[in-house]
Specification:
By secondary structure, the chain is of the alpha+beta class. The chain is built from four helices and two strands. Helix 1 packs across helix 3. The longest helix has 16 residues, at about 10-25. The chain is globular, with a radius of gyration of 14 Å. It starts with 7 loop residues before the first helix and ends in an 8-residue tail after the last helix.
Length: about 110
């Protein structure tokens, strides 16, 4: 997004496009089971997680701490992604921040 402000509907549409790309057979063929790194922030995290975990019917908020990381295994639709972790901040080095991590799934 390159504009001054993105509406909630625009963010949701952009997240749906990103989710389709991440789930596409073309990207799978190109990446050969490799790792894709996304750097995102704000509302787009919620929209993208909703799309990857169930699409339009998936409701909920996904609060991500500043500098938090997530690891997801993304499969082709209609399968939902598997969340390996979400909201990890241990790399920041502070035990206080690391204690605030919201773990949705563990290895």
């Amino acid at each position: 997004f390159t504009g001054a402000y993105e509406t909630r509907d625009e963010a949701a549409a952009r997240a749906a496009n990103v989710a389709r790309l991440l789930q596409s057979s073309e990207l799978r063929a190109k990446m050969a089971n490799g790792l894709v790194v996304l750097v995102v922030h704000g509302d787009i995290i919620n929209h993208l997680m909703q799309q990857l975990l169930g699409g339009e019917q998936m409701m909920g908020e996904f609060p991500m701490p500043n500098s938090g990381t997530a690891l997801l295994e993304i499969r082709a639709p209609p399968a939902a992604a598997t969340v390996r972790w979400f909201g990890r901040v241990g790399h920041l080095g502070s035990s206080e921040e690391a204690a605030s991590v919201m773990m949705l799934a563990t290895d």
